[in-house]
Amino acid sequence: MRALSRPVHRGQSEGCLGTGVGCHYEPMLVAFSITPLGVGESVGDLVAEAVRVVRASGLPNRTDAMFTTIEGEWDECFAVVKQAVEAVAKGAPRVSVSLKADVRPGVSGALTAKVEHIERALTE
């Protein structure tokens, strides 16, 4: 598992959101889907460009038929999403983005741990 590049802070400090959920440096999961619009029915090649950006980022990630999920710090995750959108936008006049984020202070490795927990429960 990749270590966070900055220390995890609690409460209000430089870079924190100020919302009570932690700060920009907390580990999080971001599941997102990028859809190129206005390019016809076949969008696989452009979606592959977004996935290429994600994989090159070095963040833990998983891609399935509906979403790509990444794990990292707030700024890292949203920088990757932005770069993936920009990669798709090079070949599409319009891009749709759907996002879901799980910010859980003090927890890292959730990308695999959540799935492993379910798999264990299914074997019991």
From TrEMBL:
Q: Name one GO cellular component term.
A: cytosol
Q: Which PANTHER family match?
A: UPF0045 PROTEIN ECM15
Name of the protein in its database record: UPF0045 protein
| Native species | Paractinoplanes rishiriensis
Q: Which InterPro entries match?
A: MTH1187/YkoF-like, Thiamine_BP, UPF0045_domain
Which family, according to UniProt? Belongs to the UPF0045 family.
* Pfam families xrefs: Thiamine_BP
Q: Which residues form the Thiamine-binding protein domain?
A: 30-118
